[in-house]
Amino acid sequence: MARIVIIGAGISGLAAAARLGTLGHRVTVCEAAPGPGGMVGRLQRDGFSFDTGPTLLSLPAVYRDLALKTGKEPLEQLVGLTPVDPESHHLFADGTALTLPNASRGGVARALDGALGAGAGERWAAVMNRGRAVWEATRRPLLEEPLPADTAPLGTDPYPAPRHGLARLLGGRARPTLIEVAERELGGDPRLTALLTECALRFGLDPRRAPAGATVLPYVEQTFGVWAVRGGLRTLVDVLVARCEQRGVEFRYGARVSPEDFPDAELVLRPEPAAAALPGRFSVLLALRGPRPAGTPQRTVVHTPRPREEFAALFDAPAPHELPTVQVLRPDDPSAVPDERHETAVLTCTVPSQAEVDWTAPGVAEAFADRMLARLHAAGLDLGDRVLWRQLRTPADTERETLSPGGAVASPALAGLGGAFLQPANETGEPGRYRLGQAAHPGGGLARAGMSACVVAGLVGPA
């Protein structure tokens, strides 16, 4: 039995602690905050409840595996897990509206043909088929296994460029970026381009620089589906804490520590901080009077009419953008409201981190929140007259609560571009020291954080 110290009670630290406790190790989790969860937070006020971090779950198989491996119980026995259908509703700058079904690539193609015109579904499906090739090539080395010592093969983008037109003339010498995929393979349709790039922006990726293999992100969502947890994703944290306690894991909260504080520990697992220059997230939590209208999509995306300007405002000369892409989350969850006469909504944008923009400066956050609500109003989705109160969440709040530099959100690991999009390996090269979490292999997002824990537990092995 090894004495293992895990620094950080975020979702990856909790998942690793549950797995290592089950393997027979003596595990202590030290967390600087007053409680667990990290970026998976919850705000409760006046009978309303909000997730303050991630709100929906993709690849639930990661946590189904965790539930079974640490307790022989199905995940659905521990949390209320339901597919989000429709998966999303999109409002584009030209007034087009598009509703996409959940976990149905054929249904997505039909919806695209119906909303954007014949042929749109076929073009999108062809790109998603190439996204599937990326998934099949990278699933094991980039998600399920430790990063290999020789990462050179992962420096090559496995996206199979179509063998026609410019791609054929180039003879495969130039691998496209995500935005080039949109321009060359989606017919230049600005709506299909917005659909492809929005998924990358949510993960803090610059579509102009991200490899074409980033098409795997929408492929995974549209193939395996998106899921909601009753009570919010914070419920998943509660379940993991309970599982850890059942496996004898000790928790120390309010403990700001470093690996050097545990010279006698045989193993130390620590989170890898995201780079402060990466984007963060800005959220507006809305308590609304009036019931949730029947048939309201849980996720609506209001796309910017000026995508190139938005990319520049995020990655070139960071500043709050005048017309940002806004995601609107309206959970179909009675436990999130005081009664059936109220509703919650969460507006989110990808924004520059606190290291790039001072979100605490007077008026900056309030002005941006007003801009987000104005974007909804212009798109015909006006919630302003229903607002009882609102609460803002900026990258400065994320930085203060999670110690993530600048409140930055980590991106997933991607193959391609010489390995520029790989995350640091879980093995540090120092005996008994491992990295885990959203900014370590295999990268950001709830599913990858859970995979990071699984990889590290496999490296450590049983007691």
From TrEMBL:
Tell me which InterPro entries the record gives.
FAD/NAD-bd_sf (IPR036188)
Report which residue ranges the record marks as coiled coil. none
Instruction: State the protein's name.
Output: Phytoene dehydrogenase-like protein
